[in-house]
Amino acid sequence: MKIFNLISIALCATGLMACNGGSQQQNAMPNAQQQAPAQQASTQASATPTQAAPVAQPQALPEAVTAFLNKHFPDATIVGVETDPKYGGMEYDVMLNDGTEIDFDRNNQWESLDCHVKAVPVALVPSAIASYVQANYQSTPITKISNKGYGYDIDLANGLELKFNSNGQFVGIDD
After folding, report:
1. CATH assignment of 115-175, given 3.40.1420.30, 3.40.50.1370, 3.40.80.10, 3.20.20.480?
2. Does position 89 have pLDDT exceeding 90, yes or no?
3. DSSP for 23-50?
4. pTM of the prediction?
5. How far apart are CA 53 and CA 89, in angstroms?
6. Helix, strand, coil content of the chain in percent (nearest 5)
């Protein structure tokens, strides 16, 4: 389903570029907060008409979200953002150029992080969970982590889905 969403985003972006005459300046999301100036120049110099443009023109991301992205995904750029007003705040679904999808709650805290085939950054995995996975699935990276509040759901690269409580203690394997 996620791959279908990414394909849909790419098709929509291609259509937007065609409607705007391929002008990337009209569709480009401000990257000043996500990239250092040297990276911006490099990105602008290597831009091609086939690159995907953002699906929406969201307002600037909150500083906490931007800081999280800069810290944990310094080499990635944002290709899309979906916003959803919830309970007196705004939720953000951020898509990066490497395929990573990150959902942020109304308090700008990550709720779900899906790297698909890449490993989730180690710093984002609670140490008890990382220790359990290392001890029991030594060479299998965590590709997705969801913080449910009451616990964590973890997807491994081998397809297993593990459940942990809020203290990081193993609860079981999800079917």
Report:
1. 3.40.1420.30
2. no
3. -HHHHPPP-TTTS-HHHHHHHHHT--TT
4. 0.65
5. 26
6. 30, 25, 40
